[in-house]
Amino acid sequence: MDIKLHSLKKLISLVAIMFVLSSCASMQSLSSYARTGDTVMIALGGSEDSNALVDVLKKENILITITDSAGVTYPITLRKLFKLHADYGSDYIHRSNVVNGYWDMFVPALSGQWMGIVDLIDPVSSVPHVLSVGPAKIAVSSPSQLTQKHIYKTFGAYYDYTNGDLASIDIEILPGQGKINTLNHVQEVGFHPMDMLEPSPQIMVSPSAAPSIYLGGGEFTFQYVQANFNSALTAVPAIHDPNIQITSNTKDQGDGTSLLTVTMLNPKGFKVTSSRSMDVGVGNMSPFKSLKFSLSWTKLGTVAVVDDTNWQESIQMLNGHYIDLEGNVLSDITPVMNKVR
User: Fold this and answer.
1) Quick one: 109 and 210 in the same domain?
2) What is the mean predicted confidence (pLDDT) over 36-45?
3) CA distances (Å), 99 to each of 22, 102, 157, 268, in order?
4) d(Cα 150, Cα 76) in Å, to the nearest integer?
């Protein structure tokens, strides 16, 4: 049988359909069958409050294997890893914002879905494995980044359920030799569109602790060395929350450094918890987790001087604080910087 791999346009359509599964952190492959050497897409589960144990997954810290019908296990290649979010106009986003929510939405609000593009080839040699035809299992593991299973415990034990298992993702291996998908580019997106979807290098700014009262947002000022980054820094929300207002301004100080000011607000306020349980649901308020934002820069071009070990030498937070709904500065929580990618 001649199995043709999806074109990028078809792949993007399938990705859009697959995102529906993000609200339930489903773990499965988009393709239910493949040949050795083919490319498949798999869902690694939901992001916040779900399978992901960190803010940004790093594919170099994830081990992925396939066990064929003969019981032989081989390492395979996780080529691309990126996160998807629901459209702001979707029912999932709407139900994340309404007062008291809906009883049929048991999963965390405003979650994303991590997706992986996997080549059934050896990650070192890039040579396709000789996989036995028949039922196979893909396994994904990263003790520091992912839980193998996620059990939801919402509205009492009656609604507990486990959705998927990253250690056992079903796929059928067909006869014949496949080939990896080239992921052809689409006009205006870029010559390597999946590169554009993967997380850029970024520093996340998060509250040091949960507040005791509703917050209105925060104000922050940073100074960074321009030559040590591939581009100017951009401030972006860490959570796909339509109620967040974030603005930033960059000023060249004329000495090789830039001053970056960031303001993050929600006029309706931020909750003291990220739970979507019925007693804390307030229309258009943001969960506590939405107080996080990232300073990102491009990963393309010349390698930046900044890395995981020395980044604090290239950027400093000059000042930063959170405010309550009346605009008063809070002293019991402070912003903390952490390089997550």
Assistant:
1) no
2) 90
3) 22, 9, 24, 12
4) 24
